[in-house]
Amino acid sequence: MNAIQTYRYLGPSTLRDGDLALQTSGGPTANPRFFTGFLTAPQAAAAGLLAVAEVARTRYHQPVSPASLDPVVTGSRDRLRFESFSGCCGVYARLDVSPAGFDGDVVAHGTTNVDVNAPLREALARVGGLDPLHLSVGPDDLTVSTLDGPVVERKVPLPARWLRGFAEVHVLAAATAVRAEIPAAEAAAFLRRLPRGGDRSVLWAVPAGRSLRLTSRPGPGAVCLAGAGRLVALRGLLRYARTLRVYGPPLSAGSPPATSVWELDTGGMRLSLTLSPEPHRGFSGEGGVLAALATDDVADDADLVSALLSWDPTVDVATLAAQAGRSADRVRAALVQLGTAGRVGFDVAEGAYFHRVLPYDAGRAERDNPRLAGARALVEAGAVGRDGSVATVRHGTEVYRVRRRPEGGYTCSCLWWARHRGERGPCRHALAVSMVDTAAAVGA
């Protein structure tokens, strides 16, 4: 199901007299221009933009004809970010351009979706070593030294899965840390050895000297590599990269498949691909935001934290907590809530959140999540009870038994828990028990 959003443009994107003018919408004022200047490494920048666009038009799981989806671009203080999800929502791509990557000014701030259609991809592909790449995000232009006739902007709806993907991917990314950093030459050799095409296996990458080696089992220090063919979008930027950094959550022997982040760094920009734990899993169904959304005070905290966001390149949780007069945990939960409306993302290289604004309302992800809605209905119906240390939840004619785990979270006797074992977030019964337990603790 798609979320139909209305975008208003001053005119179509065009290519005339060597200048490519890319129209945008959104931001703090009607049709703003929030950046204009030259990208200092034009070939690398063109390759990075093409990679983000390629992910947006690719469906890695059960491939079909190329999608026609628009990457998202954000300008904030001294940073430009281009983001997209794959058609299957299992790969998240982002190109971060730092001050070293451009010669110009971020004169305002804002977020918009940008059309990268076939003529624009062809124009970017022809950017040569001596060709300047001038970019102006706004109603005026994105200039490159090429001639290819007019380029027309295509308005498309942003899928509802993208909103849920934005909501989930920043929570999963925040749980990762750098596990390996290898030079570009070794990274190129490693990527060349990977299976290509529609590979659906789940492998594990382990640091080995200056490179990585693949194993069939997880272990300490390993990073999950699910569907190695999904890293193909990195190859276009390899020749310009200095290092490849790989991020993942802490693992042990027997760990289930997990999210991983693969990031090429050129010095002036970083291209990252975040892979879902398995090739058939999209980020939109991971359920990582549910526990944070289940608390009663998170909406009020999110309103307060939202008022304090100021388009800084990175969002410092400790500073926000001091400004808001809230604990760091409550601020993180508020950021999760804001993430459900696309208001924040997470940069693994900076280890910090960043601010963006998408055309979604803050309650959209909660309304669209059947597990959260079902849990609230169970609580309102008085379906949660206690039998000693075990909670019982009556759902229709069934009674489910929910237990708190020593390490946190809950187990449940329902089919969802039996199938996923907590790997895709809590079931509605566990969420309902969590809501009741939290309310009881607050009232105690």
TrEMBL record:
Keywords: Metal-binding, Zinc, Zinc-finger. The keyword Metal-binding applies. It comes from the Bacteria. Residues 400-438 form the SWIM-type domain. Pfam families: SWIM. The keyword Zinc-finger applies. This is SWIM zinc finger domain-containing protein. It comes from Micromonospora cathayae.
